[in-house]
Amino acid sequence: MTISTSTLGRDVKVMGLVGAAHWASHFFQLVLPALFLFVRDEFQVSFAALGLLTTLLYGSSGFAQTAAGFLVDRFGARRILLSGLTVASLATLGFGLVQSYWMLLPLSVLAGLGNSVFHPADLAILTSKVSSHRLGRGYATHALCGNLGWAAAPVLMIGLAQIWDWRVAIITAGFIGLAIVAAFLIWGGDLEDQNAGHAAMGADEKIPMGRLMDNVRLLLSTTIISCFLYFAFLAAALIGIQNFGIPAMVDLFSLSLVEAGRGVTGFLLGTASGIFIGGIVADRTDRHDRVAMAGMTTAALFMFYIASSDLSGTSVLILLIIAGAASGITTPSRDMLVRAATPKGASGRVFGFVYSGLDLGSSLIPLALGWALDQGRPEAVFYSATGFLAVTVLTVIQVRRQVVAA
């Protein structure tokens, strides 16, 4: 076996295992929202109350994610990743066993704490273990698997709920997560990132773990804050489609539950296909800012058209697929922009902090969109996506300026 073949095999293994973990994390995020209509009927609650569950999940995840990044740099990504995946799986199992709405609240917080580890741990492993000339495709595989997890949730959850009931669907999801934990324990022993333990405190580290002010200056630098805001606005744009796209399309376009579920799945599969293309693009260009700006602008225009038009189910599906593909193409390039802004030895901290922007954006919007649906304004889901996608373009411009200046 040549060195090149050996390296390829190692890279594929790393991408596959990390991708499976990321698939699970995104799958868990939409397990409950995919069944909101069932849960609302079961517990007789409003959409705003259901939005609170999403706010708690992403709020606790965002609160803990920066700390998770520090833990990754201190103790190693693999063990932190396994801990989070186990917690998220058990919390999901709990969703299927509750007897009242109020029991869902602490479980949402617990699920968020489990979710907090994935981005800092996943990306630290990829950055450390995948060959540099394949790193764009590594980031693309990571993002692709996450979006496939999102896409799988509505189809699988609604399908199982219609065959059995919503509780069986959610419990099944929890066991899927535990199966991935088992796969990591069996095949993932060599996935420890190089930042773990003493390696993280080596002499060549530019941002030492123990210096508080160095870490504060790093995370509050203009470049890193711009990356953080990019993720916050992006998440605010997408969370409405992911969590309330189904009831919004049922009300706005008079679609059936299955048709609306296909619309959300189509958007997420479109995103996944865009990520695949974007990974190839990211490895062939150094103007990742242009890729990100073009994709976000295109996605915003299509979202605006959906919000402002009277469309058939087929038209909505096609437009959502295109919008998803446009936003997906930007994903590997955004990760390359963050990598370019990250000092050596600080990947866990930076990725943890920056990606907590996703959770911040995801936690702030669901309550407002749930209220809008309760008021009979389903178009708000798509108009909000339009606005936030447009704002992300401004943050990309700022990140590019800072990276070039550095």
How does this model look, in words?
The chain has 406 residues and is mostly helical. It has a single domain (9-405), classed as MFS general substrate transporter like domains (Growth Hormone, Chain: A, Up-down Bundle), CATH 1.20.1250. Helices cover 82% and strands 0% of the residues. The protein has helices at 3-31, 36-43, 47-75, 77-95, 101-115, 118-129, 135-163, 166-187, 212-219, 222-253, 257-284, 288-308, 313-329, 331-340, 347-364, 366-374, 380-405. The chain is globular, with a radius of gyration of 20 Å. The chain starts with a helix and ends with a helix. Residues 196-205 have low confidence and may be disordered.
- CATH 4th-level superfamily: MFS general substrate transporter like domains
Largest sheet: none
Count of extended strands: 0
The CATH architecture would be Up-down Bundle
Order of helices and strands: HHHHHHHHHHHHHHHHH
Principal-axes geometry comes out as: globular
Q: Please state roughly what percent of the residues sit in beta strands, choosing from under 5%, 5-15%, 15-25%, 25-35%, 35-45% or over 45%.
A: under 5%
CATH topology title? Growth Hormone, Chain: A
Please state the structural category.
mainly alpha
Poorly predicted runs: 196-205
Structural Rg? 20 Å
Mean pLDDT score: 85
